[in-house]
Amino acid sequence: MKRAFLLLRRRAISSIPVLLIVVVGTFFLLELAPGDAVDAYLLSIGGGDAALMESLRASYGLDQSALARLWLYLTALARLDLGWSVTFGRPIADIILERLPNTLWLMGSALALSFSLGSILGTVAGARPGSATDRVLSIGSLALYAVPSFWLGLVLSVVFSVQLRWFPTAGIETIASGKHGLERALDIARHLVLPVSALGFIYLALFLRMMRSGMAEAWRQDFALAARAKGLSRPRIVVRHVARNALLPLVTMLGLQAASMLGGSVVIESVFAIPGFGRLAQEAVAGRDAPLLIGIIVVSAVLVILVNLMVDIAYALLDPRVGAAEASS
């Protein structure tokens, strides 16, 4: 446990400059984009004169230089203040806290589905490489991985929502249902079945193929040959030796795919009309709300860093060699 804690501390310290680069880089990229929140507002009301434009820019703080606004934003961010949304007229932190749980439920459920089911099916396929089961699962995973997530979401919605009427077509829960407690949780779970399936099945195919490839390679290693020479049963070799070693790259890929899945949730949230982080980013871009968009990117970067920190801890627990240098120093 000490080894995992030391590794976590080192990775957490090294993530601070990464987060700073993300904030500064995003700020200047948005500065290069044409237009701002004032232009979007004037376009929505049908235009305005130069005096109104200058007044709005002064009230929003857009009349200052880019470096001055960057410094103000960094000092506010150090106080955990994400600023004020021009589009919604509310604190950005409050808006994000409203939308973030929906995306976390979607992304967390999809990650759990894809990782657990993908590793299990990958273990089944890699238990006997080259068998009929292996070929069927490998071909199926390749076909599933080639399917776009938005298309899969639309197909699932048409089949299970429109035709069979098993699940709701959109939303995160029934509007004004008055449900509470367990009844509300079941209602949210029912709404999440299709979007979680559409997002998770694509990554399930990736984890399956990685697990199968890792096990096929592990069968040729000395420890697997030694276990077979000792006369251990094949199920025991698969579970306790081959699958455990093949699981390590899968855990690493879990952290790398967290960022991709967070980006993929944008499409799924649009298909199923889920008021989450992805749709909020879309609304921020449409309203040219730079503070809100930077806040979304900063929170997304923090989420990815946290997921990778948890992956590092899991990796250190699975492999005693990881973090051994920090513990011995």
- CATH topology of one domain: the name is MetI-like fold
CATH architecture of one domain: Orthogonal Bundle
Mean pLDDT: 79
Q: How would a textbook summarize the main sheet?
A: none
User: What is the CATH class of one domain?
Assistant: Mainly Alpha
Rg over C-alpha atoms, rounded to the nearest angstrom: 24 Å
The secondary structure category is: mainly alpha
Question: How is this fold's topology laid out?
Answer:
Blueprint (H helix, E strand, L loop, with lengths): L1 H31 L4 H8 L5 H11 L5 H13 L13 H36 L4 H14 L3 H15 L17 H38 L3 H8 L4 H38 L5 H10 L3 H29 L5 H5 L1
Describe the structure.
- The protein is an all-alpha fold and 329 residues long.
- 78% of the residues lie in helices and 0% in strands.
- The protein contains 13 helices and no strands.
- Helix 5 (92-127) crosses helix 8 and helix 10 runs antiparallel to helix 12.
- The longest helix is centred in the middle third of the chain and has 38 residues, at 181-218.
- The model has no long low-confidence stretch (mean pLDDT 79).
Considering the chains and any ligands shown, give keywords for the structure:
MetI-like fold, 329 residues, 78% helix, mainly alpha
Briefly summarize what is shown.
The chain is mainly alpha-helical. Helices cover 78% and strands 0% of the residues. Helix 1 runs antiparallel to helix 12, helix 7 crosses helix 10 and helix 10 packs parallel to helix 11.
